[in-house]
Amino acid sequence: MKGPVTGLLGGSFNPAHGGHRRISLFALDALQLDELWWLVSPGNPLKPKKGMAPLAARYRSARAQSRNARIRATAIERELGTRFTIDTLKALKRRYPKRRFVWLMGADNLAQFHHWKDWRGIAREMPIAVIARPGYDDDALASPAMAWLRNYRLSAAGLRNRREWSAPALIELRFDPDPRSATSIRMEDPDWADRYVGPAPRDEVTHSPVQDIARGRNA
User: Fold this and answer.
1) Which residues of 152-191 are buried (b: 16+ CB within 10 A; e: fewer)?
2) 156-210, pLDDT tens digit by residue?
3) Residue 176 CB partners (closer than 8 Å, separation 6+)
């Protein structure tokens, strides 16, 4: 393998929390990633708009949670203008041809992965590492996507030792479940975003100002 190995974790981060950080640190170690990017979505149309904080606030919460780790928060999809994950991944590979990417997702996303646009194409773009998530493992194992992807199972050690970086490849990562969720945080503190106001922050990957916009990304 040539070039840095970068993990990609997409999500609304509404807000980012310690659970995001914990699974990311685990993936960094398990896959021996050089760094990990949190792709803070401008606004996923598959999720209700009600309760969705502004992009800048969600980005600031990601910056706060990723501090002092090999994690970089980015709203690069806003800059790329992509609406679907498949388009985002292709655009990232074109923009950073010397990097090797691994797509990270929770078991909850794998359970409905077959509903995403060109999900097999996503799997062919880069290896996928699936992280266990409480309550979703059974649905993930029974999903149509898993029925197809299980033919491409690979251990974390196998990924690290692979001379040729190729996909499809499915790596299953298991560790002690983390019960924290953005939903519970919002229920306990509906005004959490008020703590993350101020001038437009700079994106840690593109270095552009992160400003609020109305468009978003589909799965």
Assistant:
1) bebebeebeeeeebebbbbbbbeeeebeeebeebbeeeee
2) 988 888 767 789 999 999 877 677 889 999 999 999 999 999 899 999 999 999 9
3) none
Global confidence as pTM? 0.91
| Helical residues (DSSP H) of 10-130, grouped into ranges | 18-30, 55-65, 76-80, 85-95, 107-111, 119-125
Residues 6+ apart with CB under 8 A from 44: 12, 216, 217, 218, 219
Q: How far is CA 53 from CA 11, 86, 93, 135, 166, in A?
A: 13, 25, 29, 26, 37
Query: Looking at the chain, which runs of residues are DSSP E strands?
Result: 5-11, 35-40, 71-74, 100-106, 128-131, 170-173
Number of neighbours of residue 150 by Cβ within 10 angstroms: 11
The number of CA neighbours under 13 Å toward the Cβ of 1 is: 18
* Dihedral angle, C-alpha 58, 60, 62, 65, nearest 10 °: -130
* Polymer length of the chain: 219
* Whether the Cβ atoms of residue 122 and residue 88 lie closer than 8 Å to each other: no
SS3 content of the chain, % helix, strand, coil (to 5): 40, 15, 45
101-145 tens-digit pLDDT: 999 998 888 999 999 999 999 999 999 999 887 666 778 888 999
Q: Which of 165, 28, 178, 150 is nearest to 93 (CA)?
A: 165
Residue 39 per-residue DSSP state: E
Is 16 in contact with 65 (CB distance < 8 Å)? yes
